[in-house]
Amino acid sequence: MTRYREHREIYTRDLSKYSIYPSIKKPEEYQARKLHVGQVIVVDVKDIDETGRGVSTYGPYTIKINGGGTVGDRAKIRITSIKENEAMADLIELL
After folding, report:
1. Full residue range of the structural domain in which residue 56 is found
2. Looking at the 3D structure of the chain, how many domains does it have?
3. Cα–Cα distance between 15 and 9 in angstroms, integer?
């Protein structure tokens, strides 16, 4: 019987279009932070990994920073590669 239905998942429909209330956009601080290659961001170094690179977090991403930095430093970095939840970055300057 389900092969004749146009919509198989009836509980995942967008019901907000039937609401009498206007939709309110979420502020930027609540949206997921996204990274892209070449982006320059400022982060705090939270840890050092076994090879001596600085480790930081940005949203759901763990960032490994090439070029130094110690725990507690604030660094301006440029993203060089991204894999799922891990990113590599080069150190531009320590702030």
Report:
1. 2-94
2. 1
3. 13
DSSP-derived letter for residue 21 is S
Burial class (CB in 10 A: 0-12, 13-18, 19+), 41: middle
- Residue 73 burial by CB count (10 A; 0-12/13-18/19+): exposed, middle or buried? middle
Q: Which helix (H) or strand (E) holds 89?
A: strand 86-94
Instruction: Tell me the pLDDT tens digit for each residue of 39-80.
Output: 999 999 999 999 989 999 998 899 999 987 889 889 999 999
What's the pLDDT tens digit per position in 1-21? 555 556 555 565 566 666 677
Report the C-alpha gap between 7 and 9 in whole angstroms.
6
Beta carbons of 88 and 41 less than 8 angstroms apart = no
Place of tokens 């995942």: 12
DSSP conformational letter for 4: G
CATH number at residue 8: 2.40.50.140
